[in-house]
Amino acid sequence: MRALLVAAAVLCGLLYIGARGAGPVPPLGPLLDPAHGVWRSAAGSAAPRGGEGRVPGLGGDVQVVYDDRGVPHIFAASEDDAVRALGFVVARDRLLQLDLQTRAASGRLTELAGARALELDREPRRLGMVRAAERKLAALDSHSAGARAIAAYADGVNAYLAAMREEDVPLEYRLLGARPEPWRPINSVHLLNRMGWTLSYGEGDLDRARLATLVGDEAAHALLPRDMPIQAPIVPNGAGGAPRFEHAVLPPPILAGDGAPAGTRPGNAARRPRPESGALGEGDALGSNNWAVAPSRTRAGRALLAGDPHLELTLPSIWYEAHLVVPGKLDVYGVTIPGAPGIVIGFNRDVAWTFTNSEADVVDFYAETVDDSARPSRYLVDGAWRPLERRVEEYRGKAGERVAVDTVLYTHRGPLRREGDRWLSMRWTVLDPSNETDALVRAAHARTAGEWYRAMEGWVAPAQNMLVADRAGTIAVRTVGRFPLRAPGASGAEIHDGARSASDWVGFRAAARYPQASNPAQGFLASANQQPVDPRADSAYLGASWADPWRAIRINALLGADSAATPESMRRYQTDPGSARADLFVPAFLDAARRIGAGGDARLDEAARLLGEWSRTYTRDDRRAVLFEIAMRELLRRTWDELVPPGESGRVATPPGAVLAALLRDSASAWWDDRRTHARETRDEVLAASLRAALDSAERRHGPPSADGWRWGAVQHANIYHLLGLAPFSRRDLEVQGGPSTLNPVVGRGTAGASWRMVVELGPELRAWGTYPGGQSGNPASPRYADRLGRWLAGELDSLRVPRTPVALAPRHRAAVLTLRPPGW
Amino acid sequence: MSGRAVLRGALVGAALALATLAVGWWGVALAAALWGLMTRGASGTPASAAVGGALGWAALLAADAARGPVGAVAESLGSVMQVPGVAIVAATLLFPAALAWAAATVAGAASRAVGGRTSARRAGGD
Fold first, then answer.
1. Is residue A112 in some structural domain?
2. Smallest Cα–Cα separation from A223: which of A250, A200, A241, A199?
3. To the nearest whole angstrom, how far is the Cα of A34 from the nearest Cα of chain B?
4. Which tens digits make up the pLDDT trace of A551-576?
5. What domain range is A643 assigned to?
6. Is A47 exposed, middle or buried (0-12, 13-18, 19+ CB in 10 A)?
7. How large is the ipTM?
8. Which residue of B46, B80, B101 is in closest CB contact with A726?
9. What's A703's domain CATH number?
10. In this structure, is residue A789 part of a structural domain?
């Protein structure tokens, strides 16, 4: 009897755990089942494999030849078929990523992960992105190249899903206890919206307003300036790439009790600032580099183009490499984002292109007057009440149960939200109707740089610095996107009065007035998210949140010194360890230490001696960069102490490094005073104190200067996390050459960086090189999951194979052939 | 264990593997329960079910291993669940063994009980 009771209890327990799991243990039955569960992933991880597949809608056979790097070369008879095949092969390699990215963009992660993902889901819905995607798709001309590509791509993904074998279900779905869902065309729109969110959504206006409550309007606008005090613009300004310093005196902070005029008196910042993390380097590494060199400055006499977009580093990577060939019509190679029905960055036989983010101001906030501050239903414009549009957002859980319901309100400008005691609505170009896919698809056919830009004229968001080189030797750059025009006198760098229709955008900048340059006398073009045009050349407002110019200065210096550039030198520059930021600040520290330490300060002398030994490069084995970075952190803390609200530990915003660099010219500025002390500090005292404190801190954390603990590679790492954050599928503590503000940036937690590196030489015969940190497969058990990581870390590039026909790929480079056929053939 | 017992375990294993292929993991419980009913809980039935459960899934796992890197999957899953990869393999063999043992035991006992009552009714009716 006892044995029976035990058996019954065991049976019940196992059936329960098998079906439902327990605590962190997922349902064991479907997971461990060797016929249908996780073990089948083993077979699915062998990569890549050939065979046959059926894809509804295909007009004929499509041959997909995988090369030895796992890159699919798609040979099709029509462009629609090529895109169908692209959807198929991307789904095959990156199914979870496809699903996860679009769920994240459409606020539907709760359906995979339950209520814990609710706050992540709320953000895109409250920003109006889901509503915008629905409207964009509805407004698409179904005959446009973009709409056809979106539909064809969906066909391909769904054909793969329909034919998917059990072993091909990604392992992560089994851990989540979920299954992939059919792909909808709107997912491609969600994906591009998400790129817009990552790259063009900024709250600089709000940061400025928060700063103004602490230090006054004038100082806030000077701290986050519309024009950077160091100019190294994308559009050459005649300085040959050398930076131009535009130093203005920084207005002193007006602090509480200073007798500030009404309207500028500091108040409470609406949001709590983030506490200081203690990480090294300011800002993050989201940003990018690209440059092109004219034939006159290359050894081979051919145009060279290089690009490395810096984005969040994940496994699998944001990029997927592919080659699409339609004989006589299309031959495009590059990287696509899973979900995007075309090549985003890449080249054809005649033109190569790459992007950096423009940082232009394409979002404005409006303080609205509402009828009820708690539950508004109307808002005031020009003295008349207008109804707020209401949209109900429902969040569902894993089993379809309702997790939460929100109501998002809209004015004619966009979504409305509460910010402190105000209601702010938002106008953002990402929410406007657009068809970026159309632009990408058409640009892939361009034969010249000019044709390429004409194809891109419909591109709205995210605004990008688009760099192009062509086989005829033209190099060109243009900042492309939709740039709002505000009413005369309004800059966009402030929160507008929503009660006046005159605050609304009055139009968009004409393409002829986009920042642009081609074939400059200096022989090269470069962009690195810096202010695109020197305000001396064009003072029209384009934005006020530019990246620091350090990378741009460095690229310009490297290219300016290289009159015979080669693909190899392009590759080397992409991981160049030099830093224009260090070149500017190190002498300031050393000069201050010399002046202050003259009275005898052994500790300061020691710190200065160590810093003086530094080569100002961030190689892995360097042992002085850590001292500089800690000194910079200390300097920021001491200088910008006014930007920390009372009772908080973090700044509401940190001014660009170029503003701090400009402040170095003003040795007695009120900003140097450290409020936490009774004395009034000068620049040199703050610099010296920062350097001294850095030595103390470095020794405390990393041991004596001679110790291995000071080795840069031991201090700062790249960390590439799996999309679900699963540690075993992540690659952490990776030693990288580079640091804050170098061309290969490694900043803070090291989770962003060069997501794709590409060099293209456009000659009679195309040559190209590239790599990204990860691999073509999204399956963590696949040998192609992270096989490119080693070369990426070493700064090496793979030679890209670009066969014109299936047989042109040498057998030794051919890994597998997949034939896709219409059903019934 | 006698050769006959091993043979019986192998046959049960084949049946449980087929059941898993056909209906999924709970096919193990179903087939083992059937086995328990058929043998009316005869001595050795639960043990042979347990051996069969482990052998059946081991065979399926071997088939997976022939088609891809099972070791890598074990390591990956083990690290996610913070156990050694070998523990995942062990769990994959122990889970069906325990499930089959329990199902065969319970079904055998139920079969005996029903059979006993039927016999008693028959005896009473006679």
1. no
2. A250
3. 5
4. 999 999 999 999 999 999 999 999 99
5. 580-715
6. buried
7. 0.91
8. B80
9. 1.10.1400
10. no
